[in-house]
Amino acid sequence: MPKTILAISGSIYSASYNTMLLKAAQKLAPSGVTINLLTLESIPMFNQDLESDIPPEVVRFRSAIEAADGILISTPEYNRSIPGVLKNAIDWASRTYEKKKNSFAGKPLLVIGATQGNLGTVTAQYHLKKIMAYLGMQVIGQPEFYLSAAYDKFDEAGDLKNEDTKNHLKAAIDVLVSKL
Ligand SMILES: Cc1cc2nc3c(=O)[nH]c(=O)nc-3n(C[C@H](O)[C@H](O)[C@H](O)COP(=O)(O)O)c2cc1C
Predict the structure, then answer these.
(1) At what angle do helices 122-134 and 84-93 cross, to 10 degrees?
(2) Is 83 near ligand 1, meaning CB less than 6 Å away?
(3) Distance between CA atoms of 171 and 31, rounded to whole angstroms?
(4) Residue 175's pLDDT is what?
(5) CA distances (Å), 14 to each of 19, 46, 137, in order?
């Protein structure tokens, strides 16, 4: 049976390296697995006032998560943590009380990340994994995938230049696929 992975970029920047990394990941999916890409620019700021009439963008976001067999998140690191846009979207998906569980609960999750800096989003990923474990996701611990100096890592077609890096990303995706 075909499986789907929802890939969420933690960056809404039009030239985002994290979105670029997810596009490279899409090409590495094995046959029978589709990686669908989602960016977060349309998600409004969480506000409890809006919970009496959930915005349609949030309904669509929750449905996309719930329809997926697994989740792949590529996060930038902002000030040694995750960007506000990503935390905001997670907060929305965590507030599905009418369904008795949040949209992410129980699903396998692979976290990756790209930065223009040298530390590969280590701290942001650490924070994100803790949040998502709290939400009841099956967070993959190994392998880890960190992309430093991202400005130097993609060719003009948006593919990862280095074969070892590509193989490492493929190995991480394969672990996620094994849990779908
Ligand atoms: C507000 C802000 C804070 C940042 N803080 C960090 C940081 O703590 N660690 C890091 O490695 N890079 C940091 N950066 C640089 C990002 O890694 C870089 O902008 C990266 O390209 C963002 O990902 P994107 O290209 O997917 O948007 C920061 C960038 C911004 C805009």
Answers:
(1) 10
(2) no
(3) 15
(4) 98
(5) 9, 22, 29
Distance 73 CA to ligand 1 centre (A): 16
The residues of the chain scoring below 50 in pLDDT are: none
Which ligand 1 atom lies nearest to the CA of residue 116?
A: 17
Pocket flag, ligand 1, residue 13 (CB < 6 Å)? yes
| Of the candidates 73, 85, 12, the residue with the CA atom closest to the CA atom of residue 46 | 85
Determine the atom of ligand 1 nearest the C-alpha atom of 120: 11
Distance from C-alpha of 147 to C-alpha of 122, rounded to nearest angstrom: 9
CB atoms within 10 A of CB 101: 13
The residue among 33, 124, 35, 50 whose CA lies nearest residue 86 is 124
Question: In angstroms, rounded to a whole number, what is the distance separating the alpha carbons of residues 66 and 44?
Answer: 19
Q: Is 80 in the pocket of ligand 1 (CB under 6 A)?
A: yes
Query: How many C-beta atoms surround the C-beta of residue 114 within 10 A?
Result: 31
Q: In this structure, are residues 94 and 135 in contact, taking their beta carbons and an 8 Å threshold?
A: yes
CA of 77 to the centre of ligand 1 (A): 5
Reading the block at residue 145, the tokens are: 């995938």
SS3 34: strand
- Sequence letter at residue 48: Q
